[in-house]
Amino acid sequence: MLIDGHGRTVNYLRVSVTERCNFRCQYCMPEKPFSWVPRENLLSFEELFLFMKVAIDEGVTKIRITGGEPLLREGLDKFIKMIHDYKPDIDLALTTNAYLLPQTAQALKDAGLKRLNISLDSLKPEVAHQIAQKDVLAQVLKGIDKALEVGLGVKINMVPLKGINDVEILDVMNYCRERNIKIRFIEYMENSHASKTIEGMHGREILEKVKEGHTIRALGREGASPSFNYLLDEEYEFGLIDPHKHDFCENCNRIRLTAEGNLIPCLYFDEALSIAKAVKEGDIEGASEVLATVLRDKPKENRWTEESLEEGQDVSSRAFYETGG
Ligand code: SAM
Ligand code: SF4
Questions:
Q1: I need a surface site. Which of 13, 163, 255, 309 has the fewest CB within 10 A?
Q2: Domains identified in the chain, total number
Q3: Does the beta carbon of 66 sit less than 6 angstroms from any atom of ligand 1?
Q4: Within 10 A of 31 (CB to CB), how many other CB atoms are there?
Q5: How far is the CA of 31 from the centre of ligand 1 (A)?
Q6: Range of the domain at 60
Q7: Is 163 within a domain?
Q8: Hey, whose CA ends up nearest to atom 5 of ligand 1?
Q9: pLDDT of 309 over the 80 cut
Q10: Could you count the other beta carbons within 10 Å of the beta carbon of residue 207?
Q11: Is residue 129 part of a domain?
């Protein structure tokens, strides 16, 4: 079992396989970064997998593949199959913008993938275009249909932004409700890479919008999930991911690995240790030591709380497209 320096059990590893993306979401990567990680610095799937085996053997039971846009990385289905074959009962999921799902969903399902989280911020083509800075909606909706058709579990993530897609909170939720898909609203997390012109919505503002014409009942956090769940009209469950709340980090169970091998203990902070040297040398003990150090030093909580933001601190400089959100 993996326990961090604050006594929390860590059993969840998020692996970003690329920082590159085919979208330019305003809250994540509004512009192409000054430079990408050179391809030769990316760990191969075999190298990433070597670390993942160490983490699984030591207690990780849940793995999420993310990015950037993970479906841009060639051979992703083979990588998923490697993980699935090593531990078929592992909870294996992927986060994607769905653009490439129409042509990849079946291979992902065949490789052993169980679940997908898909970003869907709007059902209006022009608003989806404004957020992703590309005409994406038709292809994303096709991707969602294809995922459902091949039998993958689907959850939707929406990041509500003031004056952009805030009027669509109920529409996107109804789209999900009609398809029996869970939606999770994610509070915009301020970071120095995002567009300076956008403003996120606080969880309570999102709930106010949901309440227009509906009843909601709080259900609470589900285990170590960052999502606080609610029941809409006593029948449909939706979630709110609210990192600006004090209790958000209490049960944090996750660490993140980037495509170049940085092991990140907290989404907010810049701290990370590299496992690249260890995995390139096939040094399992070395990889395990890096893992132990990162767990020991995992911060107690993020600094997205309202108080921290009001103190005028610098916002997080961690790029979501690097850490995988
Ligand atoms: N490209 C994939 C996608 O968009 O689903 C996976 C990577 S993306 C970084 C993972 C998640 O992070 C997405 O659900 C996205 O909405 C979320 N995200 C990115 N930047 C964010 C921000 N500043 N605040 C809140 N959520 C963010
Ligand atoms: Fe790409 Fe996902 Fe970031 Fe949007 S949120 S720019 S789709 S990595």
A1: 163
A2: 1
A3: yes
A4: 10
A5: 15
A6: 12-150+248-323
A7: no
A8: 96
A9: no
A10: 18
A11: yes
- Cβ of 253 closer than 6 Å to ligand 1, yes or no, is no
Nearest ligand to the C-alpha atom of residue 17: 1
Q: Is 29 in the pocket of ligand 2 (CB under 6 A)?
A: yes
CATH, residue 104? 3.20.20.70
Q: Is residue 29 part of a domain?
A: yes
Residue of the CA atom closest to atom 13 of ligand 1? 119
Query: Considering the domain boundaries, does residue 74 fall inside one?
Result: yes
Mean pLDDT lowest among 99-103, 271-275, 307-311: 307-311
- The CA–CA distances, whole Å, from 119 to 123, 135, 151, 223 equal 12, 15, 18, 23
Report field, pTM of the whole predicted structure over 0.85: yes
Distance from the Cα of residue 121 to its chain's centroid: 14
The pair of structure tokens assigned to 313 is 């601190």
Ligand (nearest to CA of 325): 1
Stretch 201-216: mean pLDDT? 94
- Ligand 1 neighbour 323 (Cβ under 6 A): no
Local confidence band at 312 (pLDDT 50, 70, 90 cut-offs): low
107-142 confidence digits (pLDDT tens): 999 999 999 999 999 999 999 999 999 999 999 999
Residue 68 Cα: closest atom of ligand 2: 8
Tell me the pLDDT of the chain averaged across its residues: 92
From ligand 2's centre to the CA of 191, what distance in Å? 14
Q: Sheet of 62-66: strands edge to edge?
A: 216-221, 227-232, 236-241, 182-186, 153-158, 115-119, 91-96, 62-66, 12-16, 254-257, 262-264, 273-274
Q: Which atom of ligand 2 is least distant from the CA of 67?
A: 8
